[in-house]
């Protein structure tokens, strides 16, 4: 398997909500969860997480992605490092 296939496999199987909930307090809002963005000062709860799609987006700073991108941004790691870390959890 190539690294990209592994990354896609990981993105589909790692629960993004569980990862984000260790860094952000999330509250329900119809179809998404919302909270204060961990990537910039945020008073407006502009950080949205879609459990159904396993993605996040901040409508304040524009940061977005899935589990890999969140961990890359929050822990300042590169793609390869995060794929290895998450791959070990699956």
What does this structure look like?
The longest helix has 11 residues, at 3-13. This protein has a five-stranded antiparallel beta sheet with strand order 1-2-3-4-5, covered by helices on one side. Helix 1 crosses helix 4 (79-89) and helix 3 crosses helix 4 (79-89). It has one domain (3-89): Zinc finger, CHC2-typedomain (DNA Primase, Chain A), CATH 3.90.580. The mean pLDDT is 93. It has helices spanning 3-13, 16-21, 67-75, 79-89; strands spanning 27-29, 32-35, 47-50, 55-58, 64-65. With 90 residues, the chain is α+β, with helices and mostly antiparallel strands. The chain has four helices and five strands, in the order ααβββββαα.
Mean pLDDT: 93
Going by helix content, strand content and strand pairing, the class is alpha+beta
| Main β sheet profile | 5 strands, antiparallel
CATH class bucket: Alpha Beta
**Strand element count:** 5
Strand line-up across the major sheet: 1-2-3-4-5
| Low-pLDDT segments, ≥5 res | none
Helix content: 40-55%
H/E element string? HHEEEEEHH
Amount of beta strand: 15-25%
> Any idea of the CATH topology?
DNA Primase, Chain A
The radius of gyration is 13 Å
- CATH homolog superfamily: Zinc finger, CHC2-typedomain
